[in-house]
Specification:
This protein is an alpha/beta fold. It folds into two domains: about 150 residues, 2-Layer Sandwich (Nucleotidyltransferase, domain 5); about 170 residues, ATPase, nucleotide binding domain (Nucleotidyltransferase, domain 5, 2-Layer Sandwich). About 35% of the residues lie in helices and about 20% in strands. It is built from twelve helices and 13 strands. The chain has a six-stranded mixed sheet, sandwiched between helices. A five-stranded mixed sheet has the order 10-9-8-11-12, with helices on both faces. A hairpin with a 6-residue loop joins strand 1 and strand 2. Helix 1 crosses helix 2, helix 6 runs antiparallel to helix 9 and helix 8 packs across helix 9.
């Protein structure tokens, strides 16, 4: 099948969309990709809904801001899908839609993603698979990370020697360890770019530490770093997942922006190093994808702690679109009844399929 996948992450850069040809087990071909950034007003709407989600925390009526932000998400996804299909000159057989995460509370079986899959199916005229986390959560899993089975497919597509680890650094960082026997171990390692982005935004210095320039000019506060690493999250092992806002920013409030960025960058790298010590065998290669791979200071910190780290782009993959591709891959697996999550990835008791299919109700294609 030709499948289109979407991802709009918690970094709020915009919507990534990618086309791949797959049967849900193998990757046959990589097709077109595009990134559609949020306008400032769109980003403000989603940020407001996210703040309201943290205050709401799953209790009582959903805030009205969710509907406003959902409209933004739907409009941009429709625009992105229509444009990519026009550029590709083909209509996909299926769409994998993640939606925009506002809140993730796996200990309560709760993960909130906004965006109406039925609207996408109706307007684009293509069946849509969405809600890929919910079955796992209801079965006692973490509902995250979802991408590991796609990482496995990528490793096999490229013939990469195992054990190997994929490290995705978005708002939160997560790793996938792939053993020689195809065994998967995956979990969120800790903060990714999220804390650094919050820092830069809170100081009115942009949206993120572009090129790691602030971190490069600062010094790591080792006392603060040690305190950050005492967070309860690092006492756990095995399948576990995070919300982007689970770590405090106030611990670096008294630091200059340069020293704070250097400390938070070291925090992200050190959290990955702690996670690496729990793996069955050290990976021969770490493949870094997501926005963190564009930060040379963070990449240097990771190499210092982990050894051989290469960005996904360096080995011929499309780093910024791997998660969008993964949503397409998972959609194909869902319609074929194949597992999306596994005991080693989300802590679910047995391999579990998931997702729900929305078919177009009528022809509203534009």
């Amino acid at each position: 099948m030709l499948v289109m996948g979407y991802m709009s992450g918690t970094s709020l850069d915009g919507v990534d969309v990618a086309l791949i040809e797959t049967d849900g087990e193998r990757i046959e071909a990589f097709d077109s990709t595009a990134m559609f950034p949020f306008a400032d007003a769109e980003r403000v709407s989603i940020e407001r809904a996210t703040r309201d989600a943290l205050a709401w925390n799953g209790y009582g009526a959903m805030p009205s801001s969710f509907d406003t932000a959902s409209t933004v998400i739907e409009r941009l996804h429709i625009e992105a899908g229509e444009r990519l299909m026009a550029e590709a000159g083909r209509r996909p057989d299926l769409i994998g839609f993640h939606g925009q995460t506002l809140l993730h509370r796996p200990e309560r079986g709760l993960s909130v993603q906004i965006g109406d899959p039925q609207m996408l199916a109706d307007v684009l005229g293509v069946p849509v698979v969405a809600q890929m986390r919910q079955d796992d959560l209801q079965a006692g899993g973490q509902g995250a990370p979802l991408v590991p089975v796609y990482h496995l497919a990528l490793a096999e597509h490229l013939g990469i020697t195992r054990p190997v680890a994929f490290l995705n650094i978005g708002g939160v960082a997560n790793l996938t360890w792939i053993g020689a026997d195809r065994n998967l171990i995956a979990f969120d390692t800790g903060p990714g770019n999220g804390l650094i982005d919050q820092l830069v935004q809170s100081r009115g210095a942009g949206r993120y530490d572009e090129g790691g320039r602030f971190a490069a000019a600062g010094r790591v506060d080792t006392d603060i770093l040690a305190r950050l690493l005492t967070h309860d999250y690092f006492q756990g092992e095995g399948a576990r997942s995070l919300d982007r806002y689970d770590f405090p920013l106030d611990w670096v409030a008294a630091c200059s922006i340069e020293d704070a960025a250097a400390t938070l960058t070291a925090f992200t790298a050190e959290a990955v190093a702690l996670a690496a010590r729990t793996l069955p065998a050290l990976p021969e290669l770490w493949i870094v994808c997501g926005g963190g791979g564009h930060n040379p200071v963070l990449m240097a910190a990771l190499r210092d702690r982990l050894g051989v780290c290469r960005t996904a782009d360096e080995i011929g993959l499309r780093s910024d679109f791997i998660e969008a591709e993964a949503m397409a891959f998972l959609a194909a697996r869902s319609v074929h009844g194949l597992p999306l999550t596994f005991p080693g990835t989300t802590g679910v008791v047995e391999p579990l399929t998931g997702g729900r299919l929305w078919r177009p109700r009528h022809n509203t294609k534009r």
